[in-house]
Each structure stands twice: as C-alpha cells, then as structure tokens.
Amino acid sequence: MDKIIIEGNGPLAGSVKISGAKNAALPMFAATLLAPGATVLENVPDLMDTRTIAKLVEVLGARIEKTDDSTYAIDCVEIKNHEAPYSLVKTMRASCLVLGPLLARLGRAKVSLPGGCAIGERPIDQHLKGLSALGATIDLSHGYVDIHTSSRLKGARITMDIITVTGVMNIMMAAVLADGETVIENAAREPEVIALADFLRSMGANIKGDGTATITIEGVTSLKPASTTIIPDRIEAGTFMVAAAITGGDVTITNANPKHMSALSGKLKEAGCEISADDSKIHVLAKNGIEAVNVTTAPYPGFPTDMQAQFMALMSMARGASVIEETIFENRFMHVAELKRMGADIKLSGNSAMIKGIKKLSGAEVMATDLRASASLVLAGLSAEGRTVISRVYHLDRGYELMEKKLEKLGAIIRREPSGESKKQ
Ligand code: EPZ
User: Fold this and answer.
1) Is the distance from the beta carbon of residue 302 to the nearest atom of ligand 1 less than 6 Å?
2) Where are the beta strands (DSSP E) in 48-127?
C-alpha cells in the first residue's frame, strides 16, 4: 500500500485548480441509466470512486469511453442487467445510487446492501422508504436489496425521517419517470442535489424546489440523454483552504464556487484568516496565526461533516480551546487517535471533541482510516515539525485527484512512496 511522506515546511503559496466534485459525479453516472443513448460527462475527477461507478454502469450494460483525462462518453442504449455485483458495491457504498434509475428504467434492481464503513453504519432505510412509497416491492435477503415493480411507479408524497443526500438523489431518479406528482419533504439541500436536478432537467425531467427542503417532481414517460459538466468539488476546495490556513499561507483556489463554501469561509474568518472571493476563485491569507473556534457539523448549508476532520487538524494548532461536534455520522473521529500521535491535545466525549491548541504538531508515522481523515493527516503533516509518514493512502485516492502534486506546486515538501518501493529499502 502506498505511503505519503511529508516534511513540515513553511507557508503554502500560489494557486491551485479544483477538480470536479466526486459527490456530484457519482449520481450523474447513475442518472445516465435513465435514458437510452449517449451522454458526455465533462470535468469528471479521476478518482478510485469515479472509476468504480464507471465500471458499475458498464457492468449494467452501458458502453463507456474515457475520451480524455476528465471526459466520459456513456452510451446507455442497452441496459439489460439489473444487478450490481457485491465485488463493486463493497468498495463503494454510493453504488446504491443505481437503485432508483434501474427501478425506473427496468422495473427491477438488485444491489448488495452497502456494508457500513469506518465512519458509521450508513443504512439505506430512507432510500427504501422512498422507493417503496413510489410502488416498489422490496426484498432484503442474503445481503442484497432486491426491488421490483410490475407496473410504472406512481408519484407519492414522501417525508424523509432523516436528511440524506444520496437518499433524496435515489428517490429523485426514480420519481422522474413515475406516473404523476412526487413531493419529497425534508429533502437534502446540498449543491450536488441541485446539480443532479439540473442534469435530470436537461434530460427532460420536470423538477422544482431542489436546493430547498421540498422537492416537487412531475413524472414524464421518457427521458433523453444529455451532456453536462461536473460542478467544482467544494470539499476539495475547502481542504485546500484549510491547507493555506494551517501553514500560514497565501493561496488562491481557482475553479471553485465560493457560494458553496460560506459555512467554512465564515469559520476560517472567525479563526483569523482573510478570505476574499469572486465568482470562481477564493483567496485565503493566514498571516496572523489561527484562533480556536467552535464548530457543529450540519446538513447543507451548515458546516459540512466532510470538512470536520480537516478543520480539527487546524484547531489542533490554534490559539485556545475549541469544541467540534459531529452530528451527522456516529463514528467520524477516527482521525483523533492519529492526530494525537502528532501531539494534538484532543479529548472525546460522545459526539464532541474538545481540542486544546498546541504551538506545533510533531511529525509522526500515522495511518489513514477513511477518506477525510486521511486529508486531515496530510494537513497536519504540512504544518508539523519534521517528517510525517501516512500509510493506507488508498483512502485519500478515493476522493482527491493528484493531491500531493497540487500541494507540491504550492510549495509543500510531499511525495508518494509506492508500496513496492518501501519493501526495497
Ligand atoms: C453523502 O453521503 C456524501 N457521499 C458523504 O460524503 C457526506 O458525508 C454525506 O452525504 C453527508 O453530507 C456522497 O454523496 C457519495 P447521508 P450519504 O445519506 O448520502 C443516515 C465523502 O467524504 N442515513 O446524507 O451516504 C446516515 O447514516 C462522503 O465524500 C440513514 O440513517 O450520507 C448518516 O448518519 C462521506 N438512513 C446521515 O443519515 C438512510 O437511508 C446522513 O447520511 C440514509 C442515511
């Protein structure tokens, strides 16, 4: 398994271009299943997860061609296979996003139940509640969810018990071809939900209210393929904003959407960063040190849970004490033990972390446990004294495109040690 080696160095400086959003790209691949014909997705980030969803859509019958570094041509004229294999689903729970489109297109979908992951059990009961409200029959057995409908799905009013991003995406992708009106209440409002609704509208769907808590969908009888460009990744952008802050740097983040970043920007300003932005760029200047600030994660537009681990690395070297409360996932503090190996002073109590900032973290050998925890360790390594060696960086590769190259361009001393190499020494 590859490692990443970082020598704590001075402030980052320069500009970095953000890639397309992983969490917008994954549902878009699934949505192409809804219409026979050829779609082009542009600005797709080259990640383990996007390669996995592309493989999954191919297994279901699509013809896929990667025409350049970030463009996929996807032809779903022949979708015959309704079953997503365990071998693929076990590597990425977002594979469950094919449930809605397969149900709508074929009347049948069989997906192995996504296992839990490091950050929590991550059930899909809300996805299934919505799909059965639309008329699907659901059978859970042998680790698979098998859903089918003998006739066209029927619109329904669905109130989500929990705000779930992929849950509302799955229901949307089924409802667009249902007979009649579907109203989804207590819906997730993330920008990736709006991006999916925009893509579905370009395919001929009739959707209103995306980005608010109530989404209304008037079913249509068929959709046509459309093409789209993936929106910028707000979590990658946020990660680089924190990289600038934690190193006392001066960094411009390009190809971003500042409107998606207001919760994080607000907290970084409270912590003493100077932040300025125009419609596609964000500038972070962190020359006056970092003050401790409290954070509670929440569904969009609140502070994103996907930035919690990265922000904790920053608070570990802030002036003062802070509390970070994680309200979305039940086990998203796996990075705490690793940060403590680097000298961080963090105490956990339930879903809260109490952090007492220290002057300087110290480099250490640490282990990545999940995607955003690995990003947090990279950020800590950038500002620590000495060398940090991060193992199991395949977690990082799920969600960050060429992260070490982008950081190196900003002045970081960072390199990847491919697994074979470490054995040779
Ligand atoms: C999406 O996951 C993102 N992934 C996650 O990003 C992100 O952390 C999460 O939304 C919250 O913003 C993708 O979009 C591919 P949820 P999702 O359904 O949709 C519970 C990353 O780092 N829940 O919004 O799976 C669930 O357990 C990843 O890029 C149910 O109980 O998350 C969690 O506690 C990590 N039943 C909460 O709701 C359900 O049926 C929010 O989960 C569904 C969810």
Assistant:
1) no
2) 63-68, 71-75, 83-84, 108-112
